[in-house]
Write a structure and sequence with these properties.
Length: 130
């Protein structure tokens, strides 16, 4: 239960630390391969992130989040890491929270319509869903 609440608060906190969308330059998204590209600290504002905000987030994660590691990825590039990001951690009951973070922006922009049914999307169970 503590981990689930920590995930929510850490996620919410990082959303607050992201910069003003109006001030962002158009940055092309990438799909990482075997190696992840890290955003240089001097270019964080170009991505809409505040260096001071990320320092505050780092302090929050260290002091309050009970997390072994955190990675924030923006448009396919790593903008923030904390802790041991290679350590495998067991996290239960976080699927809805993570999906909400991933889908929220697309829903808000009208790209994903949550009212559509599986039939509307064109999915059926003939031959399985996968």
């Amino acid at each position: 239960m503590i981990r689930r609440h920590s995930l929510f608060f850490v996620s919410f906190f990082f959303l607050l630390c992201s910069g003003n969308a109006a001030g962002q330059a158009e940055v092309e998204s990438v799909f990482p391969g075997e190696e992840w590209e890290y955003v240089n600290r001097l270019q964080l504002e170009r991505y809409g992130w505040s260096s001071a905000g990320l320092r505050t987030a780092s302090n929050f994660v260290r002091d309050s989040a009970n997390s072994t590691g955190v990675v924030v990825v923006d448009r396919g590039r790593v903008v923030f890491t904390y802790g041991d990001i290679e350590e495998l951690s067991y996290i239960a009951s976080c699927r809805k929270s993570v999906l909400a973070m991933l889908y929220g922006d697309w829903v808000e922009r009208g790209i994903i319509d949550l009212e559509m049914t599986m039939e509307d999307i064109g999915f059926d169970d003939i031959g399985g869903l996968l």
